[in-house]
Amino acid sequence: MDLRKYNQNISSLISEKELLSLWWYQPFIFSESIISGAAPSAFMKGMKKTIVERNIDKDVFTRFQHFSNCMISTYEDWLRALIQEINFNGQHLHATSVFELACNTGYFLMRLREEGGAGKYVGIDKADLSVQRSLLKKITGINDIEYRPGKWLADSHLIEGLSSDEQYDVVICNSFIEHISNPLNLINELAKRTRRIMLLNVSVGYFQHGFQIKYKHMPHHDKWGDQFPYFFDTRISRKLLLYSLEKCGFKKVAEVKNFRLPLRWSFRSLRYMTLICVK
């Protein structure tokens, strides 16, 4: 998301030092010399930072900028497909409610607002990103997105932060399902929360056939405090994923085949499917 279009003097809102110290996990262009990216370690070996400035190293900055721009283009492809489906279904974006689980700093919610969305927008994430979101509000002027603390409750199969009867016209879940141990339960719960359309991006394994889920314990679950049996990442087979969406009431599932980013070899098992699911 290119924030330069807002013509804000970002240095008057936050010091460069503080900006560079924050954790960013979505692609924003703050200025000609400062950019952030999503999962940069997947694309650049040894890259630990999620935001860089031009003086770090010319080659590093150029590569980071390339991957960040590719991610922005990928996200824009998804959003175009989503908005097209909203219009095709006779809805209007300005009257469409949207919920995003694991929304991070709110990239998709903000972009839909920019495109004219005016319905109820709610994002839930367990991470405290209030400083980042406050800065983005000041830069963009978009201050009517409701961010709630909450998370997926693996033991009860519920989403903390939502009331039992909350539903939304559009539900978004990007790159989260592969980080939980019970993906079918989450898919079922997201479907219950969806009135019309769900945008789902999920890593699937290179399964050749059948209904399969592969489990792998990953160190980030230890950092998050997850306990057995909830400390696994998972890879769900394409066939099982599509079958599950059908059983959850989605009558149309279309794949957005334009994930543009070249992954490092060690990450190529993270094969993604981006799906527009319609009831």
- Quaternary form: single chain
Strand order of the largest sheet: 5-4-3-8-9-13-12
Give the integer mean of the pLDDT values: 91
Secondary structure tally, helices = 7
What is the structure about, briefly put?
The protein has 279 residues and is an alpha/beta fold. The protein has helices spanning 16-21, 58-88, 107-114, 130-140, 183-193, 219-224, 238-247, and strands at residues 34-36, 51-53, 98-101, 121-125, 146-149, 152-153, 158-159, 168-174, 194-204, 213-217, 232-236, 252-255, 271-278.
Which descriptors apply to this entry?
single chain; 279 residues; alpha/beta; two-stranded antiparallel sheet; 7 helices; 30% helix
Characterise the protein shown here:
The chain has 279 residues and is an alpha/beta fold. The protein is built from 7 helices and 13 strands. It has helices at 16-21, 58-88, 107-114, 130-140, 183-193, 219-224, 238-247, and strands at residues 34-36, 51-53, 98-101, 121-125, 146-149, 152-153, 158-159, 168-174, 194-204, 213-217, 232-236, 252-255, 271-278. The chain has a 7-stranded mixed sheet with strand order 5-4-3-8-9-13-12, sandwiched between helices. A two-stranded antiparallel ribbon has the order 1-2. A two-stranded antiparallel sheet has the order 6-7. The two termini are 29 Å apart. The mean pLDDT is 91.
